[in-house]
Design brief:
By secondary structure, the protein is an alpha/beta fold. It is built from 20 helices and seven strands.
Length: 496
């Protein structure tokens, strides 16, 4: 009896979702394709490639133990790897892919899709919501999700009497120190060591000595358990803070596992709600965490498909500056915040959302870096990066390169924000309070430089009124612009 072949992408690693959900070893066989493009298409981070390959191989082995015939094909590209086997099967099916590129490649060779249920919100549901809105505010979508999914709701009203508790969740790190939770280290098994040996000769970036990331379903579940026991209680207050005392603070680290399917959003939400109902977790921490899962993550995926594949090419400011040297080498800057954050990426391919948005992306926006170059770098160095995650986050939220289709104002800030929300500035070579001196914080100088060069563009944006009013009051604007030009030149030379 002819069987059906199931193609499993490296982000479909779940037995109970997508094309595997109703699979039967007697009726289905499985194929993974490790493509050459996946390994050599860019200078990926070693942690990223290690994680993707080892997680897939571990999952393939679990399917073999269940009785499935599993083909693990190494090929020049995904389509070629599948085509080698396709004629031997009644049909080839796959979970609807999470990227435009893979969707086209699989359609071109006749692969049939089953719905992608790795998200809580279908593309059709998001599109219906978006078409009903005047503007695509995440807050509106989040409230829609809370009501639709009946999460943290009580007789039609939000638990706690409010939809969000942002004012309680934006604390800077404690000035006198704090007892931050510890983070896991995972022993490397035979599959892990095999992958490490195979990728040793590849032209990759970053280091592979850190053992934060496990590569199995068990590791993902253990990480969720660790978060709920050790970090959930204090997640909310410090979710926007940055500190040299802890690289992850109280963040869950679950995006890495969730984005490949080893754990799913419905599982995470269910366990978080159970823990909240047991008591000892504030509504602020619970709501803030739940919002990241059912709100922000689903919103970003929805926008990726709603805006279309051309969205990635938008460049509202016509930026042409090449990626700054400091993004690839932490020694190329004297800015303590940037240097430490880049070092953390070099070490483990991860930092939480505020360093990504308010330091790295903020600097790229202020320095007028070309969106396509910054997007490519973000895709390459973060272990949890996927196309659907990075395109809206970089083009829309971070760089405002879409002209406001996603966010009504750019997320840019001067050194004062970093000083307020971190402990980096105290021992930095630069002063966040000045803008025209040689030791002025580059963020502070470039913030006003950015406002000066883009003021005309923002003058009709009511959300930028305060910033533009501040610009008009600067008595040293010419000197600030001059110093800004010097800062950008220094950044390009790796000397700032």
């Amino acid at each position: 009896m002819p069987k059906t072949l199931i193609y499993l992408a490296h982000d479909n690693l779940n037995r109970h979702k997508g094309a595997l959900k109703d699979a039967d070893p007697k009726k289905h066989e499985v194929i993974f394709v490790e493509s050459n493009r996946m390994l050599t298409g860019a200078r990926w981070h070693r942690q990223r490639i290690f994680f993707l390959l080892s997680a897939a191989r571990h999952f393939a082995e679990s399917l073999r133990k269940e009785g499935f015939t599993v083909h693990y094909e190494k090929s020049r590209d995904t389509a070629s790897g599948i085509s080698k086997y396709a004629d031997d099967y009644e049909a080839v099916i796959a979970t609807a892919p999470s990227s435009y590129r893979l969707t086209k490649n699989l359609l071109d060779i006749g692969v049939k899709f089953v719905p992608n249920d790795f998200f809580l919100t279908s593309r059709e549901t998001f599109s219906s919501w978006a078409n009903s809105q005047k503007s695509l505010k995440m807050e509106s979508f989040y409230r829609f999700q809370r009501e639709r999914l009946n999460i943290l709701m009580d007789d039609g009203e939000p638990v706690g009497g409010k939809w969000n508790f942002d004012e309680a969740n934006r604390l800077p790190p404690p000035k006198l120190g704090h007892s931050w939770p510890s983070y896991p280290e995972h022993e490397r098994d035979e599959i892990d060591r095999e992958v490490i040996a195979e990728i040793e000769s590849l032209d990759l970036v970053g280091r592979l000595t850190d053992r934060t990331w496990g590569t199995t379903r068990e590791a993902a579940l253990a990480q969720l358990d660790r978060f709920l026991k050790d970090s959930f209680r204090d997640f909310g207050p410090y979710e926007d803070a940055m500190t040299s005392e802890s690289w992850a603070l109280n963040h869950s680290l679950l995006s890495t596992y969730m984005n490949v399917g080893l754990i799913t959003p419905d599982e995470i939400v269910a366990e978080a709600l159970k823990r909240f109902k047991r008591g000892g977790i504030s509504i602020a921490s619970c709501e803030g965490f739940i919002r990241q899962i059912i709100g922000w993550r689903e919103y970003i995926n929805g926008l990726y498909w709603y805006f279309g594949n051309e969205y990635r090419d938008l460049n509202e400011f016509s930026s042409t500056r090449k990626l700054l040297p400091l993004f690839s080498d932490s020694s190329k800057t004297k800015m303590r915040c940037v240097s430490e954050i880049i070092s953390q990426i070099e070490e483990r391919s991860w930092v939480h959302h505020i360093p990504r948005l308010m330091v790295l992306s903020n600097l790229a926006a202020l320095a007028d870096v070309k969106p396509a170059e910054f997007l490519a770098w973000m895709r390459e160095v973060f272990i949890d990066a996927t196309d659907w995650v990075m395109v809206p986050n970089v083009i829309g939220m971070s760089l405002h390169a879409d002209g406001g289709k996603m966010s009504t104002k750019p997320y840019v800030a001067g050194g004062a924000y970093i000083s307020r929300m971190s402990n980096y500035c105290g021992s930095c070579a630069y002063n966040p309070k000045t803008r025209i001196q040689e030791d002025s914080c580059p963020f502070t100088t470039l913030y006003w430089h950015y406002m000066a060069r883009n003021g005309e563009r923002f003058k009709k944006n009511h959300r930028m009124f305060q910033q533009l009013s501040g610009l008009k009051k600067l008595s040293d604007l010419d000197a600030t612009i001059k110093r800004g030009n010097e800062v950008i030149k220094g950044l390009e030379e790796g000397k700032i």
